[in-house]
Amino acid sequence: MNTNAQKLQNELQTNLQTLKKLLPSEDVLTYAFQTADGVDCALMYADGIVNKELLGTLIARPLSTLSLQGLQSDDKSATVEKTLRFPELKRKETYQDAVKEILDGNTLLLVDGLAIGFIAGAKLLPNRTVMEPPTDVTVKGPREGFIEDVKTNMSLVRKRLKTPDLRFETLKAGKRSDTAIALCYLAGTTNEKVLKEIRSRIQKINIDIIPDSSYVAALIAPRPHSVFRCIGTTEKPDVFTAKIAEGRVGILVDGSPIALTAPYVLTEDFQSSEDYFISPFLATIFRALRFLSLLVAVLLPAFYVSVQIFKMQLVPLGLMLTIASSVQELPLSPALEMFVVLFLLETLKEASIRMPKYVGMSLSVVGALVLGETAVSAGFLSTPAIIIVAFSGICLYTVPDFVETGSILRWIFLIVAGCLGPFGIVLLSTFLFAYLLTSDCFDTPLLAPFSPLTKRDLRDSVVKYGMQTLNKRPKIFQSKNKTRLRVNDDKGDAYES
Amino acid sequence: MKANTAMLNDDGVSARQTAFFAAFVLPIYKLLELPALLARFAAGDLLLPALIQFLLQTGVIVGLLFAASRSEKTLVERLEERLGKWSRLVYGVYALVFLFSAVLPLLDLEKFVYAVFYDTSPTLFSFAAFFLFSAFLCTKGVKALGRIGDLSLFLFLFPFLALIIMSLVEADITNLLPLFEQPFSNTVSGVTYTAPHFLDALFLLPLIGNLRFKKGDGVKITTGYVSGSLFTLLFLAVFYGVYSTVAMRKHYAFAKIAQYFPVLSVVGRIDLIFVYMLCVVLFFYTAIPLRNAVAYTVKASGIPSKTLLSFIVNLGAFLFVLFCNKYYDNIYAFFGNYAFPFVWVFANLLPLLLLLLGIRTKKENKENSHA
What we know:
The complex is a heterodimer. Chain A is α+β, with helices and mostly antiparallel strands. Chain A has helices at residues 12-22, 52-64, 73-83, 95-103, 150-160, 192-203, 213-220, 237-245, 280-309, 317-327, 334-354, 357-377, 383-396, 403-420, 422-437, and strands at 28-34, 40-46, 89-92, 107-111, 117-120, 166-173, 179-186, 232-234, 249-253, 259-262, 440-441, 444-445. Chain A has three domains: 6-120, no CATH class; 150-264, no CATH class; 276-438, no CATH class. In chain A, strands 1-2-4-5-3 form a five-stranded antiparallel sheet, with helices on both faces. In chain A, strands 6-7-9-10-8 form a five-stranded antiparallel sheet, sandwiched between helices. Chain A has a two-stranded antiparallel sheet with strand order 11-12. In chain A, a hairpin with a 5-residue loop joins β9 (249-253) and β10. In chain A, α9 packs parallel to α14. Chain B has 19 helices and no strands. Helix content of chain B is 70%, strand content 0%. The longest helix of chain B has 31 residues, at 271-301. The termini of chain B are far apart. Chain B is globular. Chain B has a domain at 15-101 and 142-289 and 340-358. In chain B, α3 (34-42) runs antiparallel to α10. By secondary structure, chain B is mainly α. Mean pLDDT of chain B is 87; it is low at 1-11.
């Protein structure tokens, strides 16, 4: 029989020896002590993730004053339980459960003569403090961000949704990491079908470790090979709660500050939390700007190449002459030149992320001045190409959640434009539209609310209406609870002129 | 894990999507070669043959909608229920009809692409890329058509209106006057020669066929089609207003109509951006008959692999375009001069045959009376 599945024994030493065999690692420590009348007790825990002070104050000290001799097994365990004043105290009867709890950061208390173990929740995991996420900075609005601890993240959500309808379901995935995955939703608001689908997909995950939520996102995505993602991400609890309140399902993964939300629609990427804290007119302008910027980021290099090779009419004559004069002695073809400049940009970007901060400054100088300036003066590259790629690079960052997809699309559009010109660009756009039209994830079309057209949801797409008009939840998530804002009939005081 | 392709609307397509399809997708092909053709036959009276065709098509569409409204089941469900295995034969006929209906749009599109997208001569195989897209679309269900209708609201309406506004500056609508200047025989020639451009009822068939009819749907779809017709008529009027007597030589009308807008000389051909947006709808339109042909072949043959059929159909279409594009004028003349009776059968009578499904059987009458 497997030792893991065996039950704990009455003899403390036997239990300790078996557990030591199951957990031979040096960071698993045993602290032995005795009760007032000499009954042996032992605490077993993983070093570094347990609050030792609590163990001393709430377990060792009270037990060392206790007398257990002569008590029956049941009375003994009841007395121990009464003495320990831990808010989280559980009983475990098998070695397997005991091992799991120790590895999870809890402490196992064994008492000689008892065939059970007491699990005390004295977890003290090393965590960073809640701070503003670097990837999602806002000028106005809440600044808290998720951290790597799932419990803290759950509390950040609970802080914002003080309703019994907010439900957390903790699932486990990862054979070796045994990572906690918290499904988070509003009962009565979330579409049950989607919730069931996500739950079943998480339960089917069969992998050894889950170091980050991106693993979960990739493993439960209905279209895992798509360039377009199927699951939304956020590092901000306010955004997360707002999405849950709209009828989505949230997923918090232990060890990751990035929370997942599903279903996901493409327009989400163009929305910023700040849009809801500023004037709707301004929010609409910003959203339109992001939308245009993304088009420029993805299409501008491709159009520049196709203009030079295939369709010169696209730009006015004066500009065409300027471009022609700057590229006339270049050794590279327009497509190859753009390819090289784009490659330089991506390399610089990648290096500046990975490089230590103190080298970053020199990298900017080398990248921007030395490479750019000298390449132009040496006649390898043209100034318009560098301007276009730089502008395209900046534009892409107006929609930070779309950077990965945007970068891939920019390369594809560039290659197609080099081969087929504007025809290729339009054809690829049509292909992408066709793909997006027919790509549904978790019962939700990616291109919603534009196709299928959902008139009500258009109020919070590229155009942003005022809060008073956004009184219904988005139709696309098929929430049972449709109303989110009851507009008061009171029109306010009438002022006489 | 298999992709979840469940849609928002379990009914497949909605009346709104069908109406949008009729309003924003169907007119696009008529903005290509039709204006020059009509100007050739009817000169300033070019609106007249177009109007006759639209009225005819509207009648057929209303007929189809009447047939669809007669039961809670879709036309496709009723067809299969009534004809049983013989419905495969009907699907086979429709597959062939859709293949033929793709001939002229494909040839027109190829010429259009080479003329509008390239200043220099492109390679022989440049247009082949279109068939990759088409092959992809061919594997998609009828719901995709409905969603194309929705999306075309944005991709057709805004650029179309922008082009019309830009071209109005140069348009002299009085060029259309006096009305009825041309002999009626010219109008008749215009009607017969341009018949292959008016296959609207046929194109709407897969959508209406899968529509679970509700009260008010008929009005919606008819309004959609009438709006699409009005867009085309407006375009024809502006087109003749801009080009007048040289209109017959102005092929690929929508790509050229706004080119005289004064600002373009300063900022470059920004009208091409609107033209390119319309091209997205045009590409969809051209691939749709191939998609329909594949869909009906699957139903007729029972071959489960849409991918394989899509590959075969698109490869065939590509080879056809590759080898037959030099006979473009002959094919056009054949369709215009000789094949128009068949085209009318395809475009009007064949869809109208579904009216027979509108006649309720005794069993259906019983069911209805019980309900």
